[in-house]
Design brief:
The structure is a homodimer. Chain A is an alpha/beta fold and about 325 residues long. Helices cover about 40% and strands about 15% of the residues of chain A. In chain A, strand 1, helix 4 and strand 2 form a beta-alpha-beta unit. Chain A is elongated, with a radius of gyration of 25 Å. Chain A has 3 domains: about 40 residues, no CATH class; about 130 residues, 3-Layer(aba) Sandwich (Rossmann fold), CATH 3.40.50.2300; about 130 residues, Response regulator (Rossmann fold, 3-Layer(aba) Sandwich), CATH 3.40.50. In chain A, the strands form 3 sheets. Chain A has a 6-stranded parallel β-sheet, covered by helices on one side. At the A-B interface, helix 4, strand 2, helix 5, helix 10 and helix 11 of A face helix 4, strand 2, helix 5, helix 10 and helix 11 of B. The first copy, chain A, binds a DNA duplex (16 and 16 nucleotides) through helix 2.
DNA sequence: CTGAAAGCGCTTACAG
DNA sequence: CTGAAAGCGCTTACAG
């Protein structure tokens, strides 16, 4: 402290006042001292600094995907001997005792990865004020918050799924999308639409639906689409859960998969493998997304990174048993 | 510090030596000073004590169950404004860069919940030496480590499942167990055996198998059991994953569920609801287990708790569409 | 193994 | 808004 005082041309008591956040210091002096303090990495003697830790904040996510992502983050975190925190933001806001943001500002993790980032400008400002670095993983797009992010190639994945059905010979292809307010759900839907149009079999409005990312939504929209007079021979779904719902709807209507109906999901959850027939899907590299987000966060902790850094990882079409050529 | 010195009848330098773990202090003096230090809750001045945090350590677990358990822990943790850490111990020991135990001793969480506790006496001693309180959740039983624990009523659950099949009229009931080294897998198997015997339809050796907690194991053992000349009309499985494998095996052999074969799982994973037919199962209250473990841990942090405290939560039979009366 | 004395780093109360 | 002086809590080097 004496050194800092000498360099700043002030007395030790003044440095002490800055350290303790007293108000009776000239703004100019304060700035100068703070600058030197930072440069010299000053630490209170005897202060045990809390061990560094990365916090992952989930806004409700398929359990399977959450764990995969945690595994990716953990791999990186272990290499650097950091701790790993877990927060799930309850879907029901009334259940939130304190905002996760307040909580994090008390806990002071070294950095935060936010998954399915539905956070507000206010929360973003709060974290920025607390100087806690932040990275978004698989954001469904709130482009108002300029945060470095990692996501998957939704567009390419949806195109690959569509082409797969076209190559099998399907021409009556239906699409069930995700919620309209979700940017990435739209990205998938529009990719399907574009791929179909380019192939010369434009998506018919009566075969397109807007659903939710849930089993129930797949069941409802599937029943409705498949009960039509001239039903689709193949369905592209917003995610695997919805696709499993469609499978159930198909069976309830006496349709066999894949003989009477081909179904494609999106995500690559474990359950897609356990169900019968195993689900053809577009796998998102959740583990890699977690690892990439952690690495990006570490880069951000080490020094500034362009705010709009965006890492996009490839998706993979996984062909299993729920798709086949159409019957006729 | 001066107060402590006075009360202990020593000089401040001696207290300082104890605080800094110097070796040149008489064992007796050290004990006396440490005692007073603890009683008075002495803290280094200026030391920012790290915010309290609970760490949950998983030994490979169904993703679904892990998240449910985390949710239960989080509910308690939020109430008390604690942090929540996550560690998954890789199944492959060579992947472990440093033992999770060493890592935890650096991180120093306020307490640890270990899930599926396959830890050694050495690790137990390490944590005890670090004075980190420990609770086991859903332990598969390593009774050598005397740790307070929370688990579910495996025996009662398996009995309920068996009685359900008996009440439906099944008399040709098969059982696929879990690994022999798993205490709770044996508990389930023995409960089935006992319930069958009491009902006067003892389990025939040719209908009993020892498997793994996996889809593949269910597929393999299911195929084999159902290909027998006089096959079972119902199968009790070690867990849901295995049961889903059995369902696939049945369909491959042209058997319909539940008309030709009834199947019961154990756990209550989400996928059991998404598959068709929805799986009858014994639900374990994973969220409650997490919450109970967290509460037990908080009690342990607040003061001593009998080492053999064991909380056992009830399981519930969930009847869905994979069970029905036998055909004949 | 322990204490009296000196010292270190920080903070506080006072004066201007 | 700032510094010289006094003080506080802890540690260190020395002596026995």
């Amino acid at each position: 402290m004496a050194t800092i005082a000498r360099l700043a041309g002030v007395s030790p008591p003044t440095v002490s006042r800055v350290l303790n956040g007293r108000s009776d210091v000239a703004a100019d002096t304060r700035r100068r001292v703070e600058q030197l303090l930072r440069e010299h990495g000053y630490r209170r003697p005897g202060a045990i600094l809390p061990s560094p830790r990365i916090e992952v904040v989930f806004y409700g996510l398929e359990t399977n995907l959450a764990i995969e992502m945690m595994r990716g983050v953990q791999a990186v975190v272990n290499e650097h001997d950091l701790g790993l925190g877990f927060t799930e933001v309850p879907a029901d806001p009334s259940a939130r005792q304190r905002s996760w943001c307040d909580r994090l500002l008390t806990q002071r993790p070294t950095g935060v990865i936010i998954v399915h980032s539905q956070f507000t400008a206010e929360q973003h400002a709060q974290l920025a004020a607390g100087a806690i670095p932040l990275v978004a993983a698989d954001p469904n797009g709130q482009p108002t918050q300029p945060v470095p992010s990692v996501s998957a190639a939704n567009w390419q994945g949806a195109v690959a799924a569509t082409r797969h059905l076209l190559e099998l010979g399907h021409r009556q292809i239906g699409v069930i999308g995700g919620p309209v307010e979700s940017l990435y759900a739209r990205e998938r839907m529009e990719a399907c639409r574009a791929a179909l149009e380019i192939a010369g079999v434009p998506l018919r409005p009566r075969l397109a639906r807007t659903g939710e990312f849930s089993f129930e939504s797949g069941l409802a929209h599937g029943s409705e689409l498949l009960s039509q007079p001239d039903p689709p021979t193949a369905l592209l779904c917003a995610n695997d859960l919805q696709a499993l719902g469609v499978c159930k709807a198909a069976r309830q209507l006496g349709l066999r998969i894949p003989q009477d109906l081909s179904v494609v999901g999106f995500d690559g959850i474990d359950a897609g493998n356990w169900c019968d027939p195993a689900l053809t899907t577009v796998r998102q590299p959740f583990r890699d997304i977690g690892a990439a987000a952690a690495n990006l966060l570490l880069a951000l902790i080490a020094g500034p990174v362009p705010a709009l850094t965006r890492v996009e990882l490839p998706t993979t079409l996984v062909v299993r048993d729920s798709t086949a050529p159409p019957r006729s």
